[in-house]
Amino acid sequence: MGNGNFEHVVVAIVNNIQASIFTTLVLKEIGGTRVWIKAQNMYHTEVHEKIGEDLVVHPKFNLGKRIAHNMASEKNIDFIDLSEDYCIVSEAKAGRGLELI
Q1: Which of 56, 59, 90, 97 lies at a 20 to 30 A Cα distance from 65?
Q2: Phi then psi for 78, rounded to 5 degrees?
Q3: Quick check: pTM over 0.90?
Q4: pLDDT score of 28 more than 70
Q5: How far apart are CA 74 and CA 76, in angstroms?
Q6: CB of 44 closer than 8 Å to CB of 24
Q7: What does the angle CA 73 – CA 74 – CA 78 come to, to the nearest 5 degrees?
């Protein structure tokens, strides 16, 4: 099973940050695939961003943002950030059910 056999690799080692970093370094050194990381906390996120991962996911932080956006409006059903400038918000409208805005 070589690294070149995969388009994406997900590193989800959150209980051992050192192992996560070393695994990521080896994968980036081998090259040829996109490396996505599940980070344990914001410090873990910063280290991985400096290594140069293609995507760093911080599930607790992302979920907290979604919950905060949903709580901010009674009509919000879901909120998904696409980038700093764009997002998807689904809202409930009276008598019309769910509508994607």
Answers
A1: 97
A2: -155, 155
A3: no
A4: yes
A5: 6
A6: no
A7: 70
